Amino acid sequence: MLKPLLSSIIFSVMVLGARAQVLIHKDPEISACVQEVNTDSLSTYIRKLVSFGTRSTISSTTDPQRGIGAARNWVLSEFNRFAASADGRLSAFIDTVTYTPDGKRVSTTIHLGNVVATLKGADTADHRIFIISAHLDSRKSDIMDATGDAPGANDDASGCAAVLECARILSKHIFGPTLIFVTVSGEEQGLLGSTYMAKKARAQNWDIQAVLNNDIIGSNNSSQTNIEGNTQVRVFSEGLPYYNLDKEASIIRQLGLENDGKARSLARYVKETGERYVDNLGVMLIYRNDRFLRGGDHTPYVENGFAAIRITEMNENFTRQHQDVRTDKGISYGDLPAFIDYAYLARNTQLNLSTLANLAKSPGLPQMVRMDTRDLTNNTHINWQAPKEGSPHGYYLLIRETTSPTWQKKIFTTQTDITVPISKDNYFFAVQSVSETGNESLAVVPLPGR
Q: Residues 44-56, buried b or exposed e (16+ Cβ, 10 A)?
């Protein structure tokens, strides 16, 4: 029999293999933030970024009206505008580094600059960091063209617009951990800005627990397949971890945890949280780090051991990516604001915002999560220790079939151990910390213990 404490099954209870009522708990503060996302604001951000003509990483950094320098100065001014309403919690700067010619996509010395806004956490004992990112730079068909128009409305002014809107709204709220809003440069030149930031974070031991990278999130129709629709978005996540795989491969294989690394766990969290708060948006989990043979700014983070995923529109249109603006045989090419679906972009922004806010309001990860393996039994006993950050109201035990992409059942307890009559042979388990307002931490999969 289940222990009495298991009688409190709070959220999204789905009896495995059976029909059940679903209860959705929403944090009123997060719901209110989600409703603040404004399509006019998103449109204003995108049109302003397009107005700089080109945002090529190798374009001018000194021209006040045109080029990557003017664009990043404007983003900085927006962050500083938001800071005026943040009671000193938000600060911003352009983090620059000199990058020398590489013989590939950088032909001259450049001053690479990421625009970084930091919403400092209110709890000095909470060192967790959650990041939302997009790339500021754009490109023409010729990657080395630093002067011609490269509007980059969707790739990736749409992602930058989401970053800015999340900063505008969330900077008015107080969270225990730190949130970082960043628009990086150099993505089109080879992920230069994100690589610089990820390596810096690793060298300085930042406690980054999640990176939401947004790249191309504003269009609703595809080329070639002609599919249209603005009710789905893709989340890409790596399976086997790139970082320290040689050290972790044995335990991953032994426990069958190929789908439970940091990035994939974060992807599940994005799906559950986003679909909870955002109407008419389904999150499709893609079991790849990125699109086929392609890359994005989350990759340097996963390569440095951080949980990072890529959020991308469902239906990519390649007539509007890396294309000079033109009309050829009746087809309009070029990445222009006219092709953005702002209602869709707003939903994808809400997805980011709700995920960030839920993470920021959650307690820290449960510690030392262990599954008792002393005896052969069809019961499963799991124990853990309280998180280092925050004050949890309780914990969720998560359960799913080995073939399920998402968690199917949540059981609430206020204790730090639990026993369920479910076989560890047939199901996966994890534990989350939960705040009093129902905000869950990321899930921690138990390791064998005695």
A: ebbebbbebbbbb
Inter-residue contact 118 to 197 (CB < 8 Å): no
What is the largest distance, in Å, between two alpha-carbon atoms of the chain?
72
pLDDT band at 293 (very low <50, low <70, confident <90, very high): very high
Number of domains, the chain: 2
Within this chain, do residues 310 and 419 fall inside the same structural domain, yes or no? no
Q: Provide the sign of the torsion angle of the four alpha carbons 168, 174, 179, 180, taken in this order.
A: positive
Spatial contact of 352 and 264, defined as CB atoms under 8 Å apart = no
Taken in order 72, 78, 175, 89, the sign of the CA dihedral is: positive
Which pair of tokens denotes residue 127? Answer: 């060192």
Peptide bond before residue 372 is cis, with ω within 30 degrees of 0: no
Residue from 362, 358, 369 nearest 447 by CA: 369
Q: Domain range holding 386? A: 4-27+366-449
Report the pLDDT value the prediction gives residue 23, as an integer from 0 to 100. Answer: 74
SS3 of residue 386 by DSSP: coil
What average pLDDT does range 305-327 have in this prediction? 95
Q: Which two tokens stand for residue 405?
A: 């992409």
Rounded CA separation 248/262 (Å): 12
Q: Is the pLDDT of residue 94 over 90?
A: yes
Task: For residue 301, name the pLDDT band (cuts at 50, 70, 90).
Answer: very high
Q: Which residues pair with 210 in a beta bridge?
A: 130
Q: Name the percent of the chain lying above pLDDT 70.
A: 95
Per the CB < 8 A criterion, the answer to whether 409 and 16 are in contact is: yes
Quote the CA–CA distance of 298 and 288 in Å, as a whole number.
12
| Amino acid letter, residue 220 | N
Within this chain, do residues 166 and 270 fall inside the same structural domain, yes or no? yes
Per-residue pLDDT reduced to its tens digit, 337-369: 999 999 999 999 999 999 999 999 999 999 999
In the chain, the amino acid numbered 214 is: N
117 within 8 A of 75, measured Cβ to Cβ: no
**Mean pLDDT of all residues in the chain?**
93
Residue with tokens 């953005």: 340
Instruction: Write out the E strands in 232-336.
Output: 232-236, 282-286, 308-313, 326-328, 331-333
State both tokens at 186.
């150099």
**CATH code, domain with 438:** 2.60.40.10
Please report which helix (H) or strand (E) contains residue 178, including its range.
strand 178-184
384 touches 395 (CB < 8 A)? yes
How many whole angstroms separate alpha carbon 229 and alpha carbon 233? 10
- Of the candidates 218, 220, 215, 255, the residue with the CA atom closest to the CA atom of residue 236: 215
